[in-house]
Design goal:
Layout lengths: L3 H54 L4 H11 L15 E3 L6 E3 L6
Antiparallel strand pairs: 1-2
């Protein structure tokens, strides 16, 4: 006849192995997700630097950069550009961003 105690021990061991494998899998998936996020952040930083360099060299106009800020930067992040050449102002009624003219020097 089957030894129930051995079966219970084997079941317990297998459940522990399963928990460890699931934990290892979750850890590996988190590492992949974190690495992808770091690479995405780095791409954004490098592209932003390239864009700023192109603006400094006159390859891309400040109007084009301001348009990018207006159309693609979240409203909560636009404050990062206040006081600079890419500043945009929010309109009160529509909530749509409007380009602020570049200051004359």
């Amino acid at each position: 006849m089957l030894d129930m105690e051995k079966i219970r021990e084997r079941e317990k061991r297998l459940l522990q192995q399963k928990a460890k494998v699931e934990s290892d899998l979750a850890r590996a998936q988190k590492k992949l997700k974190d690495a992808a996020r770091r690479e995405d952040t780095r791409r954004k930083i490098v592209l932003g630097g390239a864009l700023l360099a192109a603006i400094d060299r006159g390859t891309i106009s400040t109007d084009a950069a301001r348009s990018l800020v207006t159309n693609f930067v979240a409203a909560r992040d636009r404050k990062l550009f206040e006081g600079g050449p890419f500043a945009v102002a929010e309109t009160q009624d529509s909530g749509v961003a409007v380009a602020v003219p570049e200051p004359q020097e």
